[in-house]
């Protein structure tokens, strides 16, 4: 452990807050800089799988989520029209060592914010410049202010400013699909949607539906539909879609799906973009984390989970580095990249759990607090998937 290091975390999303909490757990000073003036309640659900719940447990964010979130019995995969079950993976806590919870995204954010002292999060601080010297990094912000830290963790999301500063502009590729999402009172649906999180698989489109509260008071869906390239936009949390067009796109689907879509008061829409794994995640005293490092499609529900896993591994590497933060960052990257690249690829293919899955343990059984961390000089092949006995 090295309590003398000071780390600036850019972005107070789920990865940035988790990183700050995990670093502080090891006695490392972490300060978070967020561009937004306040935390907004973005209307969306999010699934937290056991792999990320273990990290959340370790930083104290699990109890509020258990109180509020929906705990599905299983991942249920069904054929779009007949409803035939193609695969069901029950998710009891005993199977992977932590619960599987579905929640409102803002409730997850609140839980993360609750484990980071308010006075270490600075709002309205949009990072616009970074300068590394031999022993520190200088940061400059859009409001004219500046700061200094021993190192920087850039958790600034899919449109990362720091990634562009380090590696230049990116070139994402539209995958030919748009996504729609909405969260709204389930009373509007007029039928019970069961005890599971259900993914309905069509030929060229799908929809995932689940409750976001323990009381089943709110329902959420995320749907992916083919659409011509002209619609392509950058990912956005605020762009609106047409509920009518959405209902038309799912006209032949099972009555459970249609009941949800027809009850939906309004929806959001955005283009799904593909980004291949980066060659490197950082330079010397600056490293990327979460979507900034490994943006992925939402098809596998692992973007937030892997950002949260990153946080625990990063903190362990920094705590163990004896002050050599550059080496800690390379060790973190070496450990994380094989796992996140594999998840990015499966997520891009959108095949996870569609049919009988041979092995889910490597994903949901992973425990970032106890995963074996190879020394940087040693080959780390597969070490990311092995939990310590
Ligand atoms: C519709 C949808 C559904 C999803 N469902 C799931 C799911 O079920 N499970 C799951 O695990 N993942 C899911 N994901 C993925 C998940 O939302 C992301 O992977 C996750 O938000 C990444 O966290 P992050 O902290 O890296 O980035 P973000 O959450 O995007 O946070 C980045 C933060 O950085 C701030 N920022 C950006 N630039 C700057 C700057 N220059 N200066 C200061 N601050 C800055 C932003 O304001 C923001 O607060 C979903 C994604 C989408 C779009």
Give the strand line-up of the largest sheet.
5-4-13-14-15-12-17-16
Q: How does the helix and strand content classify structurally?
A: alpha/beta
Compute the number of strand runs.
Answer: 19
- Quaternary organization: single chain
Named once each, the bound ligands are: flavin-adenine dinucleotide
Termini separation (Å)?
A: 23 Å
Shape: globular
Helix content: 25-40%
Strand content: 25-35%
Helix segment count? Answer: 11
Structure description:
- With 389 residues, the chain is an alpha/beta fold.
- It is 29% helix and 25% strand.
- The chain has 11 helices and 19 strands.
- The strands form 4 sheets. Strands 5-4-13-14-15-12-17-16 form an 8-stranded mixed beta sheet. Strands 7-2-1-11-19-18 form a 6-stranded mixed beta sheet, sandwiched between helices.
- Residues 10-16, 33-36, 44, 46-47, 126-127, 155-157, 161, 181, 222, 290-292, 298, 301-305, 307 line the site of flavin-adenine dinucleotide.
- Flavin-adenine dinucleotide (FAD) binds at residues 10-16, 33-36, 44, 46-47, 126-127, 155-157, 161, 181, 222, 290-292, 298, 301-305, 307.
State the gist of this model.
By secondary structure, the chain is of the alpha/beta class. The chain has helices at 14-25, 50-58, 62-68, 93-96, 105-114, 161-167, 243-249, 255-263, 303-319, 325-349, 361-364, and strands at residues 6-10, 29-33, 45-48, 74-79, 85-90, 101-104, 121-122, 127-132, 137-141, 146-149, 151-154, 173-185, 197-201, 206-211, 218-226, 240-241, 267-274, 282-283, 286-288.
